[in-house]
Amino acid sequence: MADKNKKSAGMPEWMGSYPNPPDKKVPAIRRKTDAKPLVYGRGRHLDSTPLYISTDKIGYLGEYTVPPGEFFDPPDVHPGDECYYCISGTAHLFDPVNGDVVVLNPGDALLIPKGTWHVGFNFGDKPFRLLALVAPHIWSAEDQGLDVYFKGKQAFYKGE
Fold it and tell me: Given 25, 51, 60, 77, which is the most exposed site by the fewest CB atoms within 10 A?
């Protein structure tokens, strides 16, 4: 019962059970027209991110797009591993804790281990699109659905 209360405190009821409740899982094709629209971001960049799947084992399977000259804000951190697959454009992923940057081009994949802060920048001239998967959970029980703030001392890019 406590888990249900924590979940309902900040998360939509369908999160963790889309397209089916955990006890009624069946193979299900999710088309873009079936995706749940989620809004992410703050400030000048708010993005509608299509969510395709969210189960008791997969916190989020969806797509994320960042227009040229923008970045996703706030920086992200998750209690589960996150994987990105670059569909189009070029994404610069920055770790504000260590100052590391990786560049993703179409066809590249990236593993972001749980607990790793990250933010994506688009320095290109066309949108970048990422397929994103977070498992097993996208948010912890303490911060489900809430804005998460980076409280540490930010490192800066260590490259050339």
Answer: 25
